[in-house]
Write a structure and sequence with these properties.
By secondary structure, this protein is mainly α. It has ten helices and no strands. The protein is globular. The two termini are about 25 Å apart. The mean pLDDT is about 85.
Length: about 250
């Protein structure tokens, strides 16, 4: 099996699972899929996952765009712009192997924060700060959801899904533009991302019927466990790769 086929099959499965999760709780695609795709082909990241990140929110917005918290979204985008610039600098100046470890560390931090479900007040300062952190991690690794999700975790389901969806759409578009500007968006990443839209759509469609039957708590625990395991495997892979002779 070729490396490209492995990326599409295994990476596609990770995107499918991530889309099921995000379709139900509002975020999770990058958390599940980014470590897997980085392990399979770090050269495709973060461009490939950002293509998918930009597409999935459109499905949520098609149904729930009226529930977007526009004021909060403005603060989040305000913070994300400088965060994205810092994230782009990380992509440019940090090696592929180091970025792989960075992805893994960000996933583990996100898993820890999400698992603890910290109570964060929702105001202009916290939303702008979350937007900044999301800009850094989202542009550099494709994982920008947890900071914003933590701030909005006490909101009602439709509002959190709609607001996160609009934020993710704008964020992914911004990250892709910045990555292209700094010449860190190879054509193969765009092609792979476009192909991965297929399992993403399938995952979103599956998330609808399952949403009312699945226990969100148990699903979240399982997803966080898989994401953490993927992150640890990614760290091990990069450490071993550095130890091997060229």
């Amino acid at each position: 099996m070729t490396d490209a086929a492995l990326v599409l099959i295994v990476g596609g499965l990770a995107v499918f699972v991530g889309a099921v999760v995000q379709g139900g709780v509002g975020f999770g695609l990058g958390l599940v899929a980014a470590p897997v795709l980085t392990m399979l082909d770090p050269g495709l990241m973060p461009g490939a996952i950002q293509v998918v990140n930009m597409t999935l929110p459109l499905f949520t917005l098609a149904a729930e765009w009226r529930r977007v918290d526009w004021r909060g979204l403005g603060f989040a985008v305000l913070g994300r712009i400088p965060g994205s610039v810092l994230g782009a600098l990380i992509v440019v100046y940090i090696s592929v192997y180091s970025r792989g470890v960075f992805v893994a560390v960000m996933v583990l931090i996100a898993v820890a924060l999400t698992a603890r479900a910290l109570s964060v007040p929702r105001n202009g300062v916290t939303i702008t700060s979350a937007g900044f952190v999301s800009g850094v991690t989202g542009t550099a690794t494709g994982i920008g959801g947890p900071p914003i999700a933590l701030v909005y975790q006490t909101a009602k389901g439709p509002q959190i899904r709609a607001t996160l969806a609009m934020f993710f759409f704008l964020s992914a578009a911004q990250s892709l533009a910045i990555l292209a500007f700094v010449d860190e968006l190879p054509a193969q990443a765009l092609v792979t991302g476009a192909v991965l839209i297929v399992p993403m759509v399938l995952g979103f469609l599956v998330s609808g019927p399952l949403r009312r039957y699945l226990d969100g708590g148990k699903v979240r625990v399982a997803v966080l466990a898989v994401a953490a395991a993927s992150a640890v495997a990614l760290i091990v892979q990069n450490v071993v790769a550095r130890m091997l002779p060229m």
